[in-house]
Amino acid sequence: MIELQPTTAPKATRKDWLGLLVIALPCIVYSMDLTVLNLAIPELSADLHPSSEQLLWIMDIYGFLVAGFLITMGNLGDRIGRRKLLLIGAAFFGAASLLAAFANSAETLIAARAVLGIAGATIAPSTLSLISNMFQVPEERTKAIGLWALGYAAGGALGPLAGGLLLQYFWWGSVFLIAIPVMLLLLLTGPSLLPEFKDPQARKLDLLSAFLSLAAVLLIIFGLKEIATYGIGWVAIASILAGAGIGLLFIKRQAKLADPLIDIALFRIPSFSSSLTLYGVGCFVMFGSFFYTYQYMQLVLGLTPLVAGLWALPSFAGFMLGATQGPNLLKRLSHAQLMALCLLLATIGFIIIARLDAESSVLWTVVAMFFTSVGFAPVVTMATDLVIGSAPPERAGAASAISETSAEFGGATGMAVLGSLGTAVYRQLMFSKSFDGLPAESVQEARQTLGAAVNEAGKLGADGAILLTAAQDAFIKAMHVSAWVSIGILFLLIGLALKTLPGRTAQVNHT
Length: 511
Prior knowledge:
This protein is mostly helical.
């Protein structure tokens, strides 16, 4: 249970706030590496000539290994020192970025991206657990986590824009060089600005548990991404089932170990388990919406990728507003009340999405994305804060790794489930219509995805207008279905928040 007690922790110093700035920089780079490569695919493909499978691995292996190594790295940081692990990760991240920038083959680039993923997995748990040590006053910690989350949002927003600018003047590998000065700065200033902390009673890392967690996460994430990309198939289902089975073995092993990789007892803390659910399911909804909104702006409204990216900047401003100002509202509202209010704001954004059509102004999309961002940002901040605050200080690294793994799972599941739902609706609507007089091959391609429909309609000239209009209408209806499902989920989350989160005066006591 959560015990109520007054806070007597020391306030953060100026050095701590400077350290937070140092911590935020690698978070920006970590997030940028998830998106910055998207715009470089044409030039990269022309230079390295990767096969279709190699190109998928180039794009996905970074995110796969980040997700797979989060739990292991969180526990490793608790044992060897969080600052030490962060600096080691920064050194490898910088070296791998240099290797990726000058890769002369697809195999080399895949290997470099793999090392980037493993190194990137040190960043989230190390930085977040360091914040828990540097900012012990709950109000300060909440504000610090808000700025930490803002770093990730900034990286995601700036990635495509920075990539586009670099590709306009330099070669595709230049998108990786952004990380090097940032990691050098971290290596130079980290030892003096960041404190060291580790579990004084840490035991040897259980390698079998680390392997089981890695295998479970990788298999499930791989299966979910397969569904999001290709639809439901036996490979995806087999991968998810195998991952789930290994995950059950992992959980059973943790219950028997004296020093487990994941402390199962943490999940008995109400604020920990409910916050983890809110964070993961919130990411499910938000990442699922990304599948639709960016396609809608480009393939329905006809915006170029760069213009769509620029129109997405107000959503980053909304995230910035929510992440920085949300903690201030905790002076007047409880965690439960503020979480419910923020989820309601996000719901308004999805209601707008559910009303968009082919004639809607892009401004309505911008307004919808702003509401979802400004509503979701404090959810990230508060849920992360409650997860970290609920865990004992010596287990902060493991708790933060669990938090980020929940977010990775939620995001991947949202893309897969809501994306697959929309794809099913789209295909059903397209197959229910006849396109007499049009080439059967073009119609068959157009019935798979909106992107394929736009491509085929362009080949058909004036005759393709009917095909394009039908495809856009089917996509919009699929987007509406996904939005209404998301709205229903958000209302359930509002009820969960009001029922389980701490009241206005509650402070979390580590148990």
